[in-house]
Each structure stands twice: as C-alpha cells, then as structure tokens.
From TrEMBL, chains A, B:
It catalyses: (6S)-5,6,7,8-tetrahydrofolate + formate + ATP = (6R)-10-formyltetrahydrofolate + ADP + phosphate. ATP binds at residues 65-72. Pathway: One-carbon metabolism; tetrahydrofolate interconversion. This is Formate--tetrahydrofolate ligase. The keyword Nucleotide-binding applies. It comes from Maricaulis salignorans. It is an enzyme of class 6 (ligase). One of its GO terms (molecular function) is ATP binding. Transmembrane segments: none annotated. GO terms for biological process: tetrahydrofolate interconversion. Its EC number is 6.3.4.3. The keyword Metal-binding does not apply. Keywords: ATP-binding, Ligase, Nucleotide-binding, One-carbon metabolism.
Length: 556, 556
C-alpha cells in the first residue's frame, strides 16, 4: 500500500504564487517560504476588510475512537471537491504540533489522496509559528521570574505564579519541576512546569486575535500571578506584552499552502481542543472568507466539544456566521460506538453500526440547536460493506438528514463531489440562522449547565463549593460575560471515556476552573487533562530519518 | 543621532534573488523567506564542489572591553569596501541569539552604516535555524528520559546523564532544576538544567558538519550519559540521531541576506565562543568561498580565543586556508587596555592608547604563529584624536605591520576602502602559509600547554589530577587526536578578567574538561563559564514593541 508520505511526495506542487493567484492574491501580497509555502502580508490582510464574505462550512465528527474518523481528510477532500464542481473554495485547518510527531501520533496534514502539502514541512517547523509562540510564552516566564529576582516591586506571591513554561516536545520529565536551585544568583527556588506549546494561552490568543493591536491587548490581559491578597498581576504589569507582540508579529500572518489537487489551504494556529477552543485562527478564517466563495474549516475532537466551542467561542467572538456543518463518521468508528472493540472491527456487523448510530444521532440533534443545517459524511474505509452503509443512510434519513458516502481518501476531490454538491444545495438555498447556545450575559455556572444539559445530556453539574465561589468571584471582577471552554474527555458525552454511544443520566463533575483572561474564556475542567504528553515505549522518532536520497522517512 | 534600527529601516533592500544573482546563484537555487532572506538549496550546494575557492579573510580583535571594538561592523564594512573596489566579495557571520536581545545586549547585525538587513528578522526568528536546534536538542533530552522511563535497557546511570536541555531565552530560573516530580507517570525525579541554545553541542555540530550525512554521524556521536561502569551512552544508542537530522535538515542550508549596500551576506550558525568554537558554519563559509573571490568572516571574542579556535578547530577540521587576518581595535578599547576606566574615556589620552597597544602587539605576534599575514583596522569612533590614531599607527609600524583607519560605521563601505585595498595587495601578493598551532597527534595536555604558552603567555598550566586523568582516559578511548576548545574569560589573556593589556607570568588553571564527541573537540574550562544568562534589572524587552505604523521599536 502506498503510504501518505509517498502519495504526498509524488504530488506535483504548483508554485504558491499560482495557488495564491487563484484566490486573487497578488504575488506582492505574500511572503514566500520556499516555493510551496507563504504568509499573507499584513497590509494585504488589512485591505480585505470591505470585501463580502464567502460561505463558512464546519467539518466536525462523532466522538472520536481509536478507529479514526478522518475529519482533516474530509475537510481537505471537501475543499477539493468544491473546487472540482466549480466553486472558489479554500480550506482552513490547524497547524500540527511538532512534539507529538515524534511520539506515536501521525501528522495532521490529512491522509491518502486528501492531504495538504508539503506535508513534511507542515508537520515539522512549517513557517515557525509555534516556535514564535514558544518564545513569546517563555519570554513572559523569564520576565516574571526576573521581576521577582530584582526586588519584586509588584509583590508577586511566588506561590501563586500561575504562568508555567512551554516546549513543543513530549517531555514528561518537565511536567512538574523545581526551579532556581543552585544558589543566590539563580533566583528563589520555586515550582514550575512545562506544558506542550499548543496548550499555551498565547496559542489561544493568537487564534482569537483579530489584528496585532488586539493581540497585544489580549497578551497584556493574561493573568500570570497573584499577590498575597489574591489580586491579579497581568502580563501588562510585567511589561512583556510589547516584546511578545514583536515575537508574534510574523506568526500572526496566515500561512497558505495547497492540497494535493493544488487548491488553496490556510493552515494557521492550533490550540488544544480541551483547555482551549481547538480551532484554527480567526484571522485565517476571516481572510479566507474574503478571498473564497466557500471556506471549509474543522474543529478539534467530536462535535460535543469541537463544534460547541467553534460556535460558542470562535464564531460568537469573531462574528462568524457558519452556513452548514458536515458531521463526519466512519463505519468503523460507529461500530466502536456500538460497543465493538478495536480488535473486532473486521467483518460486516450491521447491528453494531446501527447501535453506534445513537452517537451520530445525538450529535445531529445537538447541532440543530445552533441553527445550522447539518449533513453526514461517511468517510469510506476499505472493508465497509453496502449493508453497513445502507444502515447509516437509513438511520440518518430517519432524522430528516442525509448521509453521503465519501471516497476522498482513495480518490481525492472526485470522491467527495456528491457531498460538495449536496452542501452547495443546502447553503445556497438556506438562510442565516446561526445562534450560539447561550447568551453572553448568562451567569457562568448556568452557561456550564446549559452545555451539560443541551449537549452532554447530563442530569446535572456538580462541583466543589470553591469552584462555584471562584466563578462568582470572576463574575464580580467583570469576567462574567466570557464564554466557557469545556475541557473533558473527547471520547464520550460524559466524563467517562469508556461510555461511548449516547449515554444520559450522568452528572458532569467539574474538577477545576481557570481564567484565560487574555484568550477570553473560562476553562472548565472535568476530569484529568494532560497538557504535557509523554513519548511511548518505542517513539516514532526512532524510525524517523533521511534516506539515501535525502528524503524524510518514518514521518507520517 | 540616527539609531541603527532607523538606518536599517531607511535602507533600500534589493530582492534577494538579485543579491544571489550577483554571486551567480540562480533563482531556483534558493528557497526564499520573504523577499529579503533565502536559504541556498542542498542540490545547489552539492553542485559547487568542484569550483575553485576564493580568498578567506578573518576579522578578529584585541581583547574586548566594555568600550566596544566593532568586529561585526568591520566585517560588514570590509565586505562592502571590497565590493566597491571591484572584487566579488561576500561576508560570513554568525546568527544572533534571540534570548539576549531581550536582556541588554543589542543585536548582532553590525551597526551604523555597516549592517546586515533585515535586521529585525535577523535578530529575532530569522529563518528558524536556532529554533530547529532547540527542538533537536530537546528531542534528545526527552528520548533519554523516555528510555529510562520505559525500563532503561541501556542501563543509563541517572546520576550520570550529562545531556541537559536548551532554550533560546535568558531564564536564570532554569539553570538548575529538579525534574520528574509529581508521581510515577512523570518519571524518576532527577537533576537537569537549561543552557541557552547557542551553548548546545548541536549548535557546534551544525557549524562544523560538512553535509547532512556528516551531521547525522556527529549527532550520533554525542555522549549523553554514562553507565555505572562509566562506559558512555551516545545519541546513536538512544536512536535519536535520525530524527534530529530531519529536524535540522533545513537549518543546515546557509542563509543569504544583504548588507545595507546590497552586497551578499551569509549568516549561518552561532555557537558560543567559550564552550564552543564561536564561528559561523563551515557549510556557509565553504559555499561562500565557491561563490565569491573574497570571503570575509569573523570569530568570537578577541584573537586569543576567537582566532585561535577559528584556526585550530574550524580551519583545521574543514581544510580551510585563510589568507589574511584583520585585527580590529578602537582607540577607546586600547585606552581601556591601557588602564583607563570606561567613565574616563572622553578626551585625548595618547599615553593610555600607547600603553594599551601592548594588547594589540601581543595579538599581532600571536597571529604570526599561524602563518597568516595580519593588518590592523582602527575602527573609528567620533572623538578619536589625530594624535591617538598616529600613536597606534606608529606602534603597529614598529612591528612591521600597518594600521588603517576605517570609517565604515559612519560612511559604509567607502569608509573601509583603504583597508580593502591594502588587504587585496597583501592577499594577492602572498602565499599559502597557514598552519594550525599544534599537530593533531600532540597529547591533549600538551595541546593546552602549547596554547597557554604561545598565545596566553602563561608560565604553566595547572589542574586537578582528576582533570589530567580524564584527558588520559579520553586519549585511551581514541579521542586524543581532537583539538582543544578553550573556555576562559574573553577580557584577558589570563583567567582574570581584570588583567587587561599584555600580562605574562601567570598560570592557566583548568577547572574542568568536557568531551564534545559530536562536535569533535575537548572543552577545557578555565574559570566560571555561564551557559545560561539572566535578564538585567530593566530588561530591554520592557521597551520593545510595535509603534503605530507596525514597526518594531526598542530592538537595537
């Protein structure tokens, strides 16, 4: 079988100037990174403000399982298909994180014949955005420590420094560390730790900021520590916001690459989908909407987490009006949601597929609550049977929706033309009815309750009184109008990753709440969230290298 | 007064394709990073192998003082001047480190009218080389820890892990840390610490490797830890060398930018000048020599450290044959070497200048030992008097050399034309007589003794018996043919930074020796060497930001 990297390498890339030209972007409006990657320049971005917007399409999925759903692949395939049927379409996806590429996760550049290229570059350093975020984050860390070192005029309570450090590498040894050992010149010993770069609030900020001025304001708002009296100290108090903005100046410009079929792809930003909102940057999405008639984007994890945050955080704050949702499912993943173990996925099992459709159906119901029409994409895998596919189509039809089989993995854009055609029909015949799930002015606790009830179908929400007190304190401090960013397992509607399908009657237990004052949301943590992954027993790094021709091998 | 950043911003940059064309580099042989930065592609670099080499000129300096010497500025000015007098010349300098830009150090892109541009980019992320080095270094750190975590099949003695971590940020809190706290899933608690990226052995390796194959071999040779029986464990044992090479693949390609006068400048690599050899990359220097008739490069610190390592490590290992040396001095720095404090530099003081010439004279004598002709460049500062300049010229003439006044800071290349003309005369009338100071097969201890005697003019070398035993052990293990890399204060020929001028009769005390098996040298540490700087009381980061027009301010 041909691997993703082999397919990617066999592709004929167009000069990025030609890809840009198809969106009406002149050559002097991009800064090239080699012949196949570019950033849109800031003056060009500013010049787009008055142009009309294209149609925004969200690709989301059922709850993920180890069987795989193919959300990015479907986003790429749909974008290619829209171009094939004559629409000016672009896709907007997230940048992959470097660290996990050396663990066990493959890259995040799609797969099969629905990929973005150059995939090695995209999966590795790309245009350096994540490195810039790492630098900006760690500059702030160094400046906080330095402030304390030189006399602590702001009276930071060292026990209450909440700003950690980041590195784009899976290094479990750095999760919890003691710093400033070794004597007076190294500072005051204290506790710290590293998260992976995608978990940085700077990443979330970059992805929500509308321009450099907004970026600096948000960076300045980051709460980095508290005093003994618990009053907050911000990044602005530390005077790091200007230098951080300078470090992020180029990273704020969206990156343009191409799909295997030479269609434009914006890949920009990549916040965690648990403690952050899991979407590509607002600036990329908004720019793409000015340049294309159709913009296909995706959100992290399943629709319960990803789509909800896309709507309630990104669209609400950026004023985006999505026109349709594509809900991706695979027969294999439906079987797992229907109770089958990964080892038992081979062979036809219509009953399991039907049982797993409960998960699909729940997401379809949920998506209707945002006022956006949905369509189901069955991402075809070799081995799916006609009877299994028919079962899904029939189930979805019973809910008044349509499920379309998509073969973009095997056939590229041609394999998703049916989906594209149906989608165009839906969008062009439809009307703007998007609305977030809850209003800005709902109390924070009730925002969580609304999501728990409407999306997770929980009977209730529980939390330590300290959590409720904290939410009230933030409301009193003027943060009550922020949306909430739910951090829970992506594998279930509940907080128990083993409960697949469409469970109800559970309680959502909040473990902790955090204020991301710069990003502009309250993180509500339900369960254990890992912000620094480790490497597996045999990390994929051991097999990554250059072959004799100088090609990258082992990276997929 | 116009600042460096204002002068840089007022420059008219040529498209980098045009700068490349002047060296005969076709447009498809470079990967552009915007319109003003590029990397030479690997196939093009390989195609140069059979071309003849141009003349290599080293710019070095007297011992640095807080008054400043202007080595990079002179390198840039001389390159521009050579172009002005009709020579096809290029310069090769080091990339600046990001972290120190936020402390108190200015950038490292020259100054006045002798700068390389775009200076903001060069001083910040540039083309991402240092970020790639940071990633490669920290991947190895994570893989070592991960190996121990998953059962430690190699039997690493955790107390003897010698591979630390790096970050390109001045963060003193990370100098010495305890890792893997917080429980079983975070690994085994241990000690570690961060150095600044330029201190990474990966940086030294990248700067000495001749191609990707050599790079991977050297990376594999890095010793990362020892067993209880003290047998070494290498990066190759950890199986990190392939993935690290992939991470460094693009970083290995030299960067091309331009001077304010639109002449080609290669800026590539930047190892520390104390625990490493302090020169730009071999691959950039060798490529430049294939493309230009004159290549002007520089080495870190003063000639005692920088030039010695340039000759004995870089030139020896890369087979380079430098044709001439420019020794940079300023009247102000000579005064400080003559015993004047920085606060007292204003006003004519011929006696102090003459006294300080002892330092200059010592370096001139030393340089003769490498068989390379030297010329002195007096880097002119406003306030230097005619009498002071005459005193230096007369002193240098007494040694049979010539001192040329250079005004490139104020006048650009035109200000260094005299120097360029004299240099061409020296080089074109001269012969190849370069030789390193000591042969490869001299015992390690005697290599140190030779440098101490011939360059530092010490009476002897002292060290703990453990140090001598360690050197003998390395010789027995096959490392005896490596050159030594001296790490000592740059401010004096001795190990006492206060002893300016031309001291003798001192003893060189070795504190520690380290084996850089990948870079291919033995580091001999004399005195305290700081590999992770801190930020000052008022870091320059506090004043760095964007102005209303989006320009970077506060970075200089």
């Amino acid at each position: 079988m041909t691997t993703d990297i082999e397919i990617a390498r066999a592709a004929t890339l167009q000069p990025i100037t030609e890809v840009a030209a198809r969106l009406g972007i002149p050559a002097d409006a991009i800064a090239q990174y080699g012949t196949d990657k570019a950033k849109l320049t800031a003056p060009f971005l500013a010049s787009l403000a008055d142009k009309p917007d294209g149609h925004l399409i969200l690709v989301t999925a059922i709850n993920p399982t180890p069987a795989g759903e193919g959300k990015t692949t479907t986003t790429v395939g749909l974008g290619d298909a829209l171009n094939r049927i004559g629409k000016k379409a672009a896709i907007c996806i997230r940048e992959p994180s470097l660290g996990p590429c050396f663990g066990m996760k493959g890259g995040a550049a799609g797969g099969g014949h629905a990929q973005v290229v150059p995939m090695e570059d995209i999966n590795l350093h790309f245009t350096g955005d994540f490195h810039a975020i790492t630098s900006a984050h760690n500059l702030l860390s160094a400046m906080i420590e330095n402030h304390v070192y030189w006399g602590n005029a702001l009276e930071i309570d060292q026990r209450r420094i909440v700003w950690r450090r980041v590195v784009d590498m899976n290094d479990r040894a750095l999760r919890q560390i003691t710093t400033s050992l070794g004597g007076v010149t190294n500072g005051f010993p204290g506790e710290s730790g590293f998260d992976i770069t995608v978990a940085s609030e700077v990443m979330a900020i970059l992805c929500l900021a509308t321009d450099l001025e907004d970026l600096q304001r948000r960076l300045g708002d980051i709460i980095v520590a508290y005093r003994r009296d618990k009053s907050p100290i911000t990044c602005r108090d530390i005077k790091a916001d200007g230098a951080m903005t300078v470090l992020l100046k180029t990273a704020m410009q969206p990156n343009l690459v191409q799909t295997l079929e030479n269609n434009p792809a914006f890949i920009h930003g990549g916040p965690f989908a648990n403690i952050a909102h899991g979407c590509n940057s607002v600036i990329a999405t908004k720019s793409a909407l000015k340049l294309a008639d159709y913009v296909v984007t995706e959100a992290g994890f399943g629709a319960d987490l990803g789509a909800e945050k896309f709507f309630d955080i990104k669209c609400r704050k950026a004023g985006l009006k999505p026109k349709a949702v594509v809900l991706v499912a695979t027969i294999r993943a439906l079987k797992m949601n229907g109770g089958v173990a990964k080892a038992d996925l081979a062979g036809e099992n219509v009953a399991a597929v039907t049982a797993g459709c409960d998960n699909l159906g729940r997401h379809i119901e949920n998506l209707a609550k945002f006022g956006v029409p949905a369509i189901v994409a069955i991402n075809h895998f070799t081995g799916d049977t006609e009877a299994e596919i028919a079962a899904v189509k029939s189930y979805v039809a019973g809910l008044g929706r349509e499920a379309i089989i998509c073969r973009h993995w095997a056939d590229g854009g041609a394999g998703a033309e049916d989906l594209a055609a149906k989608l165009v029909e839906m969008v062009e015949g439809g009307s703007d009815r998007f609305k977030p799930l809850y209003p800005d002015d709902l109390p924070l606790w009730e925002k969580v309750e609304t999501i728990a009830r409407e999306i997770y179908r929980a009977d209730g929400v529980s939390a330590d009184p300290a959590v409720r007190a904290q939410l009230s304190a933030w409301e009193a401090a003027g943060f009550g109008n922020l949306p909430v960013c739910m951090a829970k397992t992506q594998y279930s509607f509940t907080t128990d990753p083993e409960r697949r399908g469409a469970p109800d009657g559970h309680t959502l237990e909040i473990r902790e709440v955090r204020l991301a004052a710069g990003a502009g949301f309250i993180v509500v943590i339900c369960g254990q969230i890992m912000t620094m992954p480790g490497l597996p027993r045999i990390p994929s790094a051991e097999n990554i290298g250059l072959d004799e021709a100088g090609n990258v091998v082992g990276l997929f």
